[in-house]
Design brief:
The protein is 53% helix and 6% strand. The chain has 97 residues and is mainly alpha-helical. It has one domain.
Length: 97
């Protein structure tokens, strides 16, 4: 019985660790500046070039609201995935968990 209880605690620990590690933003680690390749989150609610903001070595000073950009990405995905050939391609190339 001890081994079973220990295994359950181990599984619970893994779930808690996973919950802490999951990304909170839809586009986390996916966006980069088109000019310099810098990271893209510049404030809690806006995306833009962090290099331009912090170092001033990039000329791209434009920012976009997070909700606006995520809405556009979701709308584009929904539109594209309605096409049968795009859905098939997406399903074939998406890794399963």
């Amino acid at each position: 019985m001890r081994a079973g209880k220990s295994a359950q605690q181990g599984q619970r620990h893994q779930l808690v660790f996973y919950e802490r590690q999951r990304l909170r933003m839809l586009l986390s680690y996916l966006l980069k500046c088109g000019c310099c390749g810098g990271l893209s989150k510049v404030s809690q609610s806006r995306y833009g070039c962090s290099i331009a903001r912090n170092k001033g070595t990039c000329t791209d000073r434009l920012t976009v609201r997070q909700k606006e950009l995520e809405g556009l990405v979701i709308a584009a995905l929904q539109s594209r995935l309605r096409e049968r050939r795009c859905w098939r391609n997406f399903a074939m190339n998406t890794p399963t968990i």
